UniProtKB/TrEMBL annotation:
<comment type="function">
    <text>Catalyzes the reduction of fatty acyl-CoA to fatty alcohols.</text>
</comment>
<comment type="similarity">
    <text>Belongs to the fatty acyl-CoA reductase family.</text>
</comment>
<dbReference type="GO" id="GO:0005777">
    <property type="term" value="C:peroxisome"/>
</dbReference>
<keyword id="KW-0444">Lipid biosynthesis</keyword>
<dbReference type="InterPro" id="IPR013120">
    <property type="entry name" value="FAR_NAD-bd"/>
</dbReference>
<dbReference type="InterPro" id="IPR033640">
    <property type="entry name" value="FAR_C"/>
</dbReference>
<dbReference type="GO" id="GO:0080019">
    <property type="term" value="F:alcohol-forming very long-chain fatty acyl-CoA reductase activity"/>
</dbReference>
<feature type="domain" description="Thioester reductase (TE)">
    <location>
        <begin position="22"/>
        <end position="291"/>
    </location>
</feature>
<dbReference type="Pfam" id="PF03015">
    <property type="entry name" value="Sterile"/>
</dbReference>
<feature type="domain" description="Fatty acyl-CoA reductase C-terminal">
    <location>
        <begin position="369"/>
        <end position="459"/>
    </location>
</feature>
<dbReference type="InterPro" id="IPR026055">
    <property type="entry name" value="FAR"/>
</dbReference>
<dbReference type="InterPro" id="IPR036291">
    <property type="entry name" value="NAD(P)-bd_dom_sf"/>
</dbReference>
<keyword id="KW-0443">Lipid metabolism</keyword>
<keyword id="KW-0521">NADP</keyword>
<keyword id="KW-0812">Transmembrane</keyword>
<keyword id="KW-0560">Oxidoreductase</keyword>
<dbReference type="Pfam" id="PF07993">
    <property type="entry name" value="NAD_binding_4"/>
</dbReference>
Length: 511
């Protein structure tokens, strides 16, 4: 919100004196959500955050880490005291009752007016039981809690636009799952882990991983559970760095688009196995959060879908329908960002080739990813250092392979509810909580994204340093030499092959 702007926000007013319960508040989306609510809804009473102890850190230590994040820089500058509104609720979404104590449960039931459920394990490869309990059973547990909340005005469930990714057209509606969610919860909790390894993938149907499988079941469960409070589902596509808030390019999650941008800009990825002209649906994190906040307001004031069964309100939160970008363009803009602002962490001169054929892709990656990596490790070995290049490229390849189903599927999402919601908001709120994907220009967004990765994630301060520019120049010439040599060898091989054919024909004609 512009500090000089004295207009009153209707959405912000809705939150006056209300408390919000958020799960997943320590995550990528969660941080932006907490920050935005505290900054743009100053009348909010409390934000109750479900947090688990993790990696030896207590929940209080985790809160200190959270609020120290650069995501909160702007808020700390404008209204540091707002951070005192955060109240920690110790719990774990993979536990029954969300692992919340009796006292805290009572506190939530008495105080909370809005629930936003963002917690999930977003890993595509994850322990099956844990994934089912965290992504699916937690929704059940949260809905049970919600029914006990005395004055619940709205509940927003954050799902994913890929929960039914195999549908060629994804509408803003409920897609029933193939199995009863409760059956899956019971089955996974009563089957030993070693048997689940074999069983689980057989149940996926058209899903390719445990993530979309559990997220689609969670939607189904949430929709089918009878409830007497307004409820909606927001389905973001692939969430990328912030477009504008809290800072352009803010990001702290090295998943999905982040490695694609970073590794294309630094010349790490040079070949991809995908349809280059397919849309890669990226949506900035602040756009998603603005929509989530607006949805929670809207369903509360309209008191919609109280029964929640026949017509859940679903919002496909995607960019591709109105402002599409292809994989080729993402890589191109990222490469341009890398060239504009070279880094000392560059691996090669930025370039990307796209292959639909898996074989050609494998040949290219062997030649351009693995041979240089093997050479680099061999040189390191001679210097007595443990080489890590091959290992690094294994991770890069693994990351890219996880995104294959996204990069090789052309999906059309219907987005009618978002624009309707935006037009129902007053002019002021349309600015403060803008979530129109048409407002950004992809090239400058990707420039900011790459800048954000370096500033907020990799702490790469070498942008445009003399050393970075020298390295970039060296890589550019090395690339000319290598590409030129490959072209010369290919030409030579072609000429040789042509000669052999001509000679054979000549010999045949003599006979
Ligand atoms: N990122 C995307 O591209 C994307 C795209 C579409 C939809 N979404 C959805 O958006 C939501 C948030 O995703 P994200 O990207 O912010 O993920 P994230 O950065 O991995 O954050 C996940 C959040 O969930 C919490 N969580 C996970 N397991 C938990 C457990 N057992 N108990 C308590 N809390 C737990 C994490 O807490 P800890 O800090 O304790 O781990 C963290 O706060 C998810 O529902 C996801 O499905 C994300």
């Amino acid at each position: 919100m512009n500090p000089n702007d004295n207009q009153i926000s209707t959405i912000s007013q809705f939150y006056n004196g209300k408390s919000v319960f958020i799960t997943g508040g320590t995550g990528f989306l969660g941080k932006v959500l907490v920050e935005k609510l505290l900054r743009s809804c100053p009348g909010i009473e409390n934000i109750f955050l479900l947090v688990r102890p993790k990696k030896g850190k207590s929940i209080d230590e985790r809160l200190a880490d959270l609020t120290a994040s650069q995501c909160f820089d702007l808020l700390r500058e404008k209204n540091q005291k707002a951070l005192n509104k955060i109240v920690l609720i110790e719990g774990n979404t993979s536990d029954l009752g969300l692992g919340i104590s009796k006292e805290n449960r009572e506190l939530l039931c008495n105080k909370v007016s809005v629930i936003i459920h963002s917690a999930a394990t977003v890993r595509f490869v994850e322990a099956f039981k844990y994934s089912v309990n965290t992504n699916l059973r937690a929704v059940n547990e949260l809905l049970k809690l919600s029914k006990e909340v005395k004055n619940l005005k709205s509940f927003v469930h954050i799902s994913t636009a890929y929960s039914n990714w195999f549908q060629p057209v994804i509408e803003e509606k409920h897609y029933p799952a193939e199995f009863d969610p409760q059956y899956i919860i019971d089955l996974f909790n009563s089957t030993p882990d070693d048997q689940l390894e074999k069983l689980a993938p057989k149940l996926y149907g058209k899903h390719v991983n445990i993530y979309t499988f559990t997220k689609s079941l969670a939607e189904d469960l949430a929709v089918k559970t009878p409830k007497d409070f307004p409820f909606a589902i927001v389905r973001p596509s692939v969430v990328g760095a912030s477009f504008a808030e809290p800072h352009p390019g803010w990001v702290d999650s090295y998943t999905a688009t982040t490695p694609l941008v970073d590794q294309s800009a630094r010349g790490v990825i040079r070949a991809l196995n995908c349809h280059k002209n397919y849309v890669f649906d990226v949506i900035p994190v602040d756009i998603v959060i603005n929509q989530v906040i607006a949805v929670s307001w809207k369903i509360a004031i309209d008191s919609v879908s109280k029964s929640g069964i026949s017509s859940p309100l679903v919002y496909n939160c995607v960019s591709g329908t109105t402002n599409p970008i292809t994989i080729k363009e993402i890589c191109q803009y990222s490469r341009d960002a890398g060239k504009k602002s070279p880094s000392e962490l560059m691996r090669w001169y930025p370039q990307t080739r796209f292959y639909k054929s898996r074989t050609l892709f494998k040949i290219d990656t062997f030649l351009t990813h693995y041979i240089p990596a093997l050479l680099s490790d061999a040189v390191d070995k001679l210097r007595g250092i443990d080489g890590k290049a091959v290992n690094y490229y294994n991770k890069v390849q693994y990351g890219a392979s996880q995104l294959k189903f996204i990069m090789n599927t052309s999906i059309m999402w219907k987005t009618e509810n978002g624009p309707k919601l935006l037009s129902s908001m007053d002019k002021h709120d349309q600015k403060v909580f803008n979530f129109d994907p048409k407002i950004y220009n992809w090239r400058s967004y990707i420039d900011d994204f790459y800048f954000g990765i370096r500033k907020f994630m990799t702490n790469d301060k070498t942008a445009c340093s003399i050393a970075a520019q020298k390295k970039f120049a060296r890589l550019k010439y090395a690339n000319y030499i290598v590409s030129g040599s490959i072209a010369a060898i290919s030409l030579f091989a072609l000429v040789k092959a042509g000669d052999q054919i001509i000679n054979k024909d000549a010999e045949k004609s003599k006979i």
